[in-house]
Amino acid sequence: MFPPLAYLQWIEGRPAAAEHDLGSSDLRRLPAGDPDDPVPPRLRGRSAPEYDRSLRERVAAEYGVDEANVLLTAGATHGGFLASATAAALARERDGGRDGDAAASASFHAGGADGPRPWALVEEPGYEPLVETPRGIGSRVARFRRPGPAYDLDPERVAAAAADLAGPLAHVTVTNRHNPTGALTDRATLAATAEVAADRGGFLLVDEVYAPYTVGADGEGRSDETAAIGGAFGGPTGAGLPATVTVGSLTKFHGLGGLRVGWITGPQAFVERARLVEHHVPALAAPSVALARRFFAHRDDLVGDAREHCRRNHELLAAFLDGRDDLAGSVEPGSPFAYLEHERVDGDAVSEAAWDAGMLVVPGRFFGLDDGVRVSLGRAPDDCAAALEAFGRVLDGL
């Protein structure tokens, strides 16, 4: 049911082996440190919370939603799996017209007397697991285009694709920022897309792990302020919109991937059903919860540091593209990653030449874009500056 994920197989071990890393997109500036120390470097030496506020309360406050709208997960991948599986289960139950736990269990199985399998409608180009995970749980997958060069999310395109589906719609899946281009979608567009999904009985699933990648101030980021502008950690969010489920984590913007702490937000009934799906898979570990609470105790300082890291890397990447006549593409405002195409060779040729020179650059074919590469500046700005200089030499030799 679950095929190998080509991108994850390809990138395994490469960030550690590369002399220059322009492939990793999480904002990491400190070395890993002692592998036996369970406290990540960014949290080392920082005090635990002085008062008792749960991690779920903290996440709910950040997104301006009720605790009942939040489910903690073991990272964003776990969250995406639970969201997709829950939407599929609800679609089967809705299509079968059954009530009760026994009927819910039966309706989760594919085909046969339970009716047609539900559909997942996923953006293209896009991140491979967002396509393969729904297939792995038994959903059918269709795609809708986010056309270049802007790669904007267009609710009308989503509606046209949804109209062609013969069977129940479980969810429409998008990323924000868009992976791999960095295009950012505003809350109004997310709301219009969610309405399209709801009209077919489904949900909008928004992977928001890159949404906080912004360079402006975030109003100190507290719950009332971010809720007022529809944002979290300084970036846009679909949290709280009708028929909308969001996925977030401490991995990318916050640079705390080792904790494997994530969450989903969604309507209360969706979250309650997701808790039942969670019984089938491992859950978030208590030590990670404790360390995540430590992050929130120092939230403003750590988010401010990450925002400065993001700003400097964005400026480096934008300046690099401006100085290259042989590259086409766009570095979206505030984004430290972008999809770029070389004027003479395709993405595989660029990536292979870079790897031969000790540099990690991700070929666009893993996202459905064969002509270019995704260039991501996640490491410390000084390291990224050196990596871009080396990448320029690779491009000069093509």
UniProtKB/TrEMBL annotation:
Its EC number is 2.6.1.-. SUPFAM superfamilies: PLP-dependent transferases. Keywords: Aminotransferase, Transferase. It comes from the Archaea. The keyword Ribosomal protein does not apply. Residues 21-31 have a biased composition (Basic and acidic residues). Residues 21-51, 96-119 are annotated as: Disordered. Residues 102-111 have a biased composition (Low complexity). GO terms for molecular function: pyridoxal phosphate binding; transaminase activity. Residues 121-391 form the Aminotransferase class I/classII large domain. The keyword DNA-binding does not apply. InterPro entries: Aminotransferase_I/II_large, NHTrfase_class1_PyrdxlP-BS, PyrdxlP-dep_Trfase, PyrdxlP-dep_Trfase_major, PyrdxlP-dep_Trfase_small. Belongs to the class-I pyridoxal-phosphate-dependent aminotransferase family. This is Aminotransferase. It comes from Halobaculum magnesiiphilum.
